[in-house]
Automatic annotation (TrEMBL):
Keywords: ATP-binding, Nucleotide-binding. Residues 5-225 form the ABC transporter domain. Coiled coil: none annotated. The keyword Magnesium does not apply. This is ABC-F family ATP-binding cassette domain-containing protein. CDD domains: ABCF_EF-3. SMART domains: AAA. One of its GO terms (molecular function) is ATP hydrolysis activity. InterPro entries: AAA+_ATPase, ABC_transporter-like_ATP-bd, ABC_transporter-like_CS, ABCF_ATPase, P-loop_NTPase. The keyword Nucleotide-binding applies.
């Protein structure tokens, strides 16, 4: 699969609060990714970093040459006084398209999202139709990767089902943030959860959301078992240390250092396991 964008060792904090560190993964053509995590885990921030609209504190974002990205924010903002046609045409300003080609492309995007009157004022749209208009504005850019932050917000059930069908037929890759488990199950083929419960700061699993839940449980169970095994090792080493080993010998020094490493590893594992709960969908 062709790579679209990669993140390497991405870190982001706000003041003294660290959202995430060391985030490293790659997105490829054909991937349909659900990005989940508890509130405050940094999902929206990471999506903006992927989009290139926000910079990380450290790390690197590598975008394939000439790759096209489109970003759909949680809140839909349109300039006042514009028709729906005007809104959708905005991203194509300066594209070099002829007037006729621009008209056709905008018309196709509006049609795909259910609009029948290009002259309709954007200001009078309901929340659900504002979301459709924002999606049309993203689709007209013909993205290789579409980034969607809570796209089902303000949508009724029929509109959610419509969006599922649109994404199912999409030729572009996408990353979406959603709290809707059914929507994730029906639209994604990979799930990434941001959480401190994982050594790398996230868990990535291929397959639908239900497969992610199974693999997540397996991972956390194995990590809990690792904590128990480490605790047993640490107890043995602490007992040995209490017997007062002669630290001047090379072998004793190495064992004391190993005991310190095990204690640190146990503390890290306990901290991760303490944060492990339900998958990050409230």
């Amino acid at each position: 699969m062709s790579t679209i964008v990669s993140l390497r060792s991405i870190a982001k904090s706000f003041g003294a609060r660290t959202l995430f560190t060391g985030i490293t993964f790659t997105l490829h053509q054909g991937e349909r990714v659900g990005l989940i995590g508890a509130n405050g885990s940094g999902k929206s921030t990471l999506l903006r970093i992927l989009a290139g609209s926000e910079s990380p504190d450290s790390g690197e974002r590598i975008l394939r040459r000439q790759a096209r990205l489109a970003y759909l924010a949680q809140e839909d903002v349109f300039d006042p006084g514009l028709s729906v046609e005007d809104v959708v045409a905005q991203p194509l300003a300066g594209s070099g398209l002829s007037g006729a080609d621009l008209h056709v492309r905008v018309g196709e995007a509006l049609s795909r999202t259910g609009f029948t009157d290009p002259a309709q004022p954007a200001s009078g749209l309901s929340g659900g139709w504002r979301k459709r208009l924002a999606l049309a504005r993203a689709l007209v850019q013909e993205p290789d990767l579409l980034l969607l932050d809570e796209p089902t917000n303000h949508l009724d059930l029929d509109s959610v089902l419509w969006l599922e069908k649109l994404l199912a037929s999409a030729r572009f890759a996408f990353v979406l943030i959603s709290h809707d488990r059914c929507f994730l199950e029906n639209t994604t083929n990979r799930t990434i959860e941001l959480a401190r419960a994982y050594p790398e700061g996230f868990l990535s699993v291929g397959g639908p959301y239900s497969t992610f839940l199974e693999k997540r449980e397996e991972f956390l169970s194995a990590q809990a078992g690792q904590e128990q095994a480490l605790a047993s090792k640490v107890r043995r080493e602490v007992e040995w240390l209490r017997r007062g080993p002669k630290a001047r010998t090379t072998k004793a020094k190495a064992r004391i250092e190993e005991a310190g490493r095990l204690i640190g590893e146990l503390a890290d594992t306990r901290e991760r396991n303490a944060t492990a709960g339900r998958a990050g969908i409230d």
